[in-house]
Each structure stands twice: as C-alpha cells, then as structure tokens.
Design goal:
Structural class: mainly alpha
Helix content: over 70%
Amino acid sequence: MAESNPVNSQVTDSVTQSNVGVVAEAPAQSMGMVYQTMAHSISLSMQNMVTTQNGMQQIGTSVVSSACAKIVEAAGGGGGI
C-alpha cells in the first residue's frame, strides 16, 4: 500500500522539534514554579511573624504602662493618671 502523507516533511519535523523543546523545558519551568511558590509561602510566613511580634510589642507596652500607673498610684502620687 502506498504511503499517503499530505503534510510536508518539513512541517512535521518542525512540529516534532517544537514538541521536543516543550518536553525538554517542562522540568525547568516546573521547578521555577516550585521555587516561586516556596518563596511566596516563606514571605507570607515572615509577614505573619512580623505582625505577631508587633502585636506582642503593643501588649508589652500596655502592660508596662499599666504597671507604672499602678506603682505611681500606690506611691500616692497619682497626679491624675
């Protein structure tokens, strides 16, 4: 049976080379995506840590100011605090 191929061999070669290029680049692209996702996750974690630390600093400041007010009040020099 005669081979009936209506597509030019240069076209099929070009498509084949393009497919090989896509398959060859896929691991690098997927690792790049993994690295970007990891960097984003770490940055979100760091942002949460900074926010928590800021909140704890505010709580510490309010505790110290309350303690100072109670000390001044106990010493009898309230002075309208």
